[in-house]
User: Fold this.
Amino acid sequence: MMDIETVFIEGTPRLAVDRAGSGSLVFFLHGIGGNRKNWTGQLEALGGGYHAVAWDARGYGGSDDYEGPLDFGDFAKDALRVLDRFGAERAHLVGLSMGGRIAQDFHARFPGRVATLVLCDTRADFQDSMPPEKRAEFIRLRQAPLLAGKEPRDIADALVESLVAPGADDAARRKLRESIAALHKESYLKTIEASLTFDRSAEIDRIRVPTLLIYGEHDTLTPPAIGRALHDRIAGSEFVEIEGAGHLTNIERPEAFNAALFAFLARHRDRAG
Assistant:
């Protein structure tokens, strides 16, 4: 099994990063309810041929919290620090859900630093791509209970069941519960607020790097139709639907996810540097 090392990216805030292997940098970005441990299976599998890195975004896991409200663009600026820390001129970015939106924003801000994009179970915006009733449900499940005094661990079971496919195994459910229970409450609330108003939909047609879109067959938060719509707009992109998976494709169906990811990266390995 590939050894995984935890390192810290100094600065404000300090960022916790897991890393494995050497070679072209593959940078994994977790979702709004996740942390770097969501990608352990990918780091273990990929580290033999790449420098695989997964972070805790600011206010998550082992990374520091921060003062004041969140500007969603702060994530992309933090991600740039990660690339610079590891001396990567360009990196393969793999982002799931919120992580996919961070990857889109990073590409819009720093296109020359992106080798490829892998956008998983994600969207470009909430305002146009999520109906008002779905947005209200999103907020109700995540924000309202915490504002009423509950802790992240108290909402974990309901959130997990809203995200996974009906046939998800107990190990996948347990991993998701653990990541939700570990959320930093105040930072999580700030992230929800910033994420709901952030919109990169106008930039989608400008993506010119090789792009892979991975979506779960049973994802109700970002259904495959959203991925296919992005696929239609991103020139030369590829689309893969993971059978039997919900919103967390890499955790629910890791073998199928890894197969699609590894095949894509192998075709574009030399683009990173």
In short: The CA atoms of residues 26 and 187 lie 26 Å apart.
